[in-house]
Amino acid sequence: GPCTECSCSSGKATDKDTSNAKKKENGDRSFIPKIFFGTRTHKQISQITRELKRTAYSSVPMTILSSRDYTCIHPMVSSSGSNRNEMCVELLEGKHGKSCLYYHGVHKLSEHHALQSAHRMYQAWDIEDLVSLGKKLHACAYFAARELMVGADIVFCPYNYLLDPQIRESMEINLKGQVVILDEAHNIEDCARESVSYGVTESQLRAAREELDFMVNNNIRQKNHEPLRAVCYSL
């Protein structure tokens, strides 16, 4: 029989119903939170996405955020043992008259996934799948993964992408109102400690001290540089 305990029985719409109707009329979508799934290592992400493929939710739009170490396909940058981030930025800024052709092909990867989704062929994927597709389409897997985050329902990433405020800002991650799942959360303490820690070598300290000596001796913003120099000397 008809419901007798809510507004539908009397045919009167509540304020909430009215606001929802207005939303539909205006074409506004109600806010749907994303699921941010944080893991300790990239290997664990591979395991989770493999399990996701076996479930009924395999076709849910997803992405995996990871560093350039795992996703960069530029021959010069990926073959470099270190400073991949700096080299990538230099190419994007067009320094030395060179640019990254793979970055300009990012839309190819995102359009590929959009097409798969439209034809209901979308399947959960791993970083290796995205990288191999990126190589095939000559498109940057690193920036494609970030672009796919906009339409993703599930975002997989290592812990520090969620815990480190600098990484969150650079990756444009906003956790307000979102669902956060932390796998093996007993490891969070160490990760949080690492996020606010910094390692520096003795040679780096000596180089910094020499530069600060130069600044102070040449009266360049002396008030700012003297305290920093004192810290370097004390260390």
TrEMBL record:
Residues 1-26 are annotated as: Disordered. The lineage of its organism: Eukaryota, Metazoa, Chordata, Craniata, Vertebrata. It comes from the Eukaryota. Transmembrane segments: none annotated. GO terms for biological process: double-strand break repair involved in meiotic recombination; nucleotide-excision repair. GO terms for molecular function: ATP binding; DNA binding; DNA helicase activity; hydrolase activity, acting on acid anhydrides, in phosphorus-containing anhydrides. This is FANCJ protein. Keywords: ATP-binding, Hydrolase, Nucleotide-binding. Residues 1-232 form the Helicase ATP-binding domain. Coiled coil: none annotated. GO terms for cellular component: nucleus. InterPro entries: DinG/Rad3-like (IPR045028), Helic_SF1/SF2_ATP-bd_DinG/Rad3 (IPR014013), Helicase-like_DEXD_c2 (IPR006554), P-loop_NTPase (IPR027417), RAD3-like_helicase_DEAD (IPR010614). It comes from Ciconia maguari. Residues 13-26 have a biased composition (Basic and acidic residues). The keyword Hydrolase applies.
